[in-house]
Give the backbone structure.
Amino acid sequence: MRIVSCKDYAEMSRVAGNLMAAEIIKNPSCVLGLATGSTPIGAYEHLVELYKSGDISFKDVKTYNLDEYRGLAHDHDQSYHYFMNENLFKHVDIDMKNTHVPDGSNPDAEAACAEYDKMVEEAGGVALQLLGIGNNGHIGFNEPGSVFVGPTHCVDLTESTIVANSRLFERIEDVPRQAYTMGIKTIMSAKRVVIVANGEAKAEAVKAMIEGPIDPMCQASILQLHPDVVVVCDEAALSLCSSVK
Ligand code: PGA
């Protein structure tokens, strides 16, 4: 794992956005794996700036998002389809046909997940996967548990995730209880992984990811086995890591 320690959220966002931009410059029709949540918003803002200044184009870029709530329509303002449109897609020249998010509106979980894996595979896999990390160490919605699950699958969200995400819903009862998420196989198959985290609230999870045992109770710890991971964090998120100066 390569660890990049940034002084604040702005620097973290710039570094992560630049890594993604470099991928696009290297291969204008690359396949990017995208993440939602508060953490990557700054990286998307940086990418929009680079697009507006003419440094990059998304014209031929293909994107596959990590996850989606089960049961939310695409236009629901808390759906990840909506999030991606608002925070990236509508600001750049991406062809919406090339953007993909698991279909949370399909109640047939098995079909929705199998179809998603097939699409990622047919696209040739992910070149660069952007990830956030949950307070509980989840990546995508791969929640702490007794195993690492390979394929895209339907998960029951843990109470800690429901509580963490309830800040974005009017009432905690409105938070969906299930989601479709890329599994560990697709994430680990990405050629490069860039994982972002900021703030003290993520420090325990970041420590477990970097310094803990490889343990499905911290799903992000599997990334220790990936050959090309860049961990981009602010100082607060790295504050408990004794191995990071
Ligand atoms: P956050 O979520 O960026 O909103 O903290 C990260 C995650 O849950 O993966």
The chain has seven helices and ten strands. The pocket of 2-phosphoglycolic acid is lined by residues 37-39, 132-134 (CB under 6 Å). The longest strand covers residues 192-197. Residues 9-26 form the longest helix (18 residues).
